[in-house]
Recover the amino acids of this structure.
């Protein structure tokens, strides 16, 4: 793992963003927990996606489908047959790897060679009910999309939507990855943000291009650096069994082979899913067009994003080390200072309130200001250590604004607001502080 990633992983654990799951028992490969700051960042990311994809549109509705589904779902969708990776096993140490992730020699024992590749299904199998037999077997869903497809008719009828319209969902998915790795980039339990946008056959090219542009714009709007994003269209030989065309939004991960890897995919799934589920279930999943008086099987454009991958990319994109520091403290200023330049809409803590002294009346005034701001945003109140050290703590977790309550505040009813990125300081009236941050944060 590159040095930059080592430092980020350390920061994530130290500051309560992300750490290994069940760590006191040695953890579980490919499983991570999100701490107090991590869960806030994740919620903000999902809220930003939902706001753009659902709330701000009149042609998209939401869904929360169950994780467990009838096993026939995965036969109809093709997952039982196609959701496999090629697995190889070292003949010496018997460790197993994805065939496309290793060379000729085992990366663990450095001596062994590999068996011939064999298919390995990535779905996690479980049973439902008191009897464990083939009849009770099903899978933890490997994607959220199928819950949307099997509910297409019910959602369309209940919401009275007309083509084109979308159904959006955020939820957990599970894949038994052979070799999880690169922190939260490839895990066995993860969250997806998926939109299935249903359209009339023949209009797929127009909407495919529309959603590619729309999704790229969203990444820029939540603060990603433009130079760290790119589009990659799949050649025909790389397309999934359901896809007529797929374009990935890729990020410049420091660990990525070739320098880039996917954070979101936009796929033209045609009518593959509805057609297969209609045939397997014997249920009519067609759409009746009132204008043409015809029934059609909708085509689908699918923007599908991984919450955990995007969050990792956000942290990498925002992570910066300033040699020699930038904030004066009581210690030597020759050490390196870390700043997370997260967009204010995404940052887990929006404002930190910092009284200059632990004594009254500064602490009371500070706590009153923090209590008022908490009605709108996530706030931290901190009165411990020098003001310089407290600024650095907030810079390290990505807090965009700090409010310093000083001795003059008691007399003039004003506080000093420090902006994280520019480090500029501005005197703001306490009575106006809420509206001030409303304009800055939203």
């Amino acid at each position: 793992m590159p040095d930059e990633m080592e430092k980020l992983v350390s920061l994530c654990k130290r500051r309560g963003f992300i750490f290994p799951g069940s760590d006191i028992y040695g953890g579980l490969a490919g499983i991570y927990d999100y701490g107090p700051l991590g869960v806030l960042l994740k919620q903000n990311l999902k809220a930003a996606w939902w706001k753009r994809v659902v709330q701000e549109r009149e042609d998209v509705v939401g869904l929360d489908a169950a994780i467990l589904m009838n096993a026939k779902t995965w036969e109809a969708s093709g997952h039982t047959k196609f959701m496999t990776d090629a697995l190889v096993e070292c003949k010496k140490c018997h460790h197993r790897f994805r065939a496309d992730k290793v060379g000729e020699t085992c990366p663990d024992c450095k001596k062994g060679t590999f068996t011939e590749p064999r298919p390995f299904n990535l779905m996690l199998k479980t049973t439902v009910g008191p009897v464990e037999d083939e009849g009770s077997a099903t899978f933890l869903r490997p994607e959220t999309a199928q819950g949307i497809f099997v509910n297409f008719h019910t959602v369309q009828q209940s919401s009275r939507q007309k083509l084109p319209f979308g159904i959006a969902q955020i939820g957990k998915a599970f894949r038994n990855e052979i070799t999880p790795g690169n922190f939260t980039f490839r895990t066995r339990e993860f969250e997806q943000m998926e939109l299935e946008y249903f359209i009339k056959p023949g209009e797929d090219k127009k909407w495919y291009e529309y959603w590619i542009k729309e999704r790229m714009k969203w990444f820029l709007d939540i603060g990603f650096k433009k130079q760290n994003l790119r589009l990659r269209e799949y050649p025909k030989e790389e397309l999934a069994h359901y896809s007529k065309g797929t374009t990935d939004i890729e990020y410049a991960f420091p660990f990525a082979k070739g320098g880039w890897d996917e954070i979101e995919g936009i796929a033209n799934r045609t009518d593959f899913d509805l057609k297969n589920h209609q045939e397997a279930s014997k249920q009519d999943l067609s759409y009746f067009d009132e204008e043409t008086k015809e029934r059609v099987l909708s085509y689908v454009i699918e923007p599908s994003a991984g919450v955990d991958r995007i969050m990792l990319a956000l942290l990498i994109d925002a992570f910066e080390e300033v040699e020699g520091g930038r904030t004066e403290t009581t210690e030597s200023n020759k050490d390196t200072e870390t700043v997370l330049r997260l967009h204010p809409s995404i940052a887990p803590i929006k404002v930190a309130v910092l009284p200059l002294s632990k004594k009254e009346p500064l602490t009371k005034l500070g706590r009153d200001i923090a209590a008022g701001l908490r009605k709108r945003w996530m706030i931290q109140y901190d009165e411990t250590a020098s003001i310089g050290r407290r600024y650095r703590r907030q810079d390290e977790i990505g807090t965009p604004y700090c409010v310093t309550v000083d001795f003059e505040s008691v007399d003039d009813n004003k506080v000093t607001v420090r902006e994280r990125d520019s480090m500029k300081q501005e005197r703001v009236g306490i009575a106006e502080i809420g509206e001030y941050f409303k304009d800055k944060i939203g």
Remarks:
- The domain at 3-80+125-316 is CATH 3.30.930.10 (BirA Bifunctional Protein; domain 2).
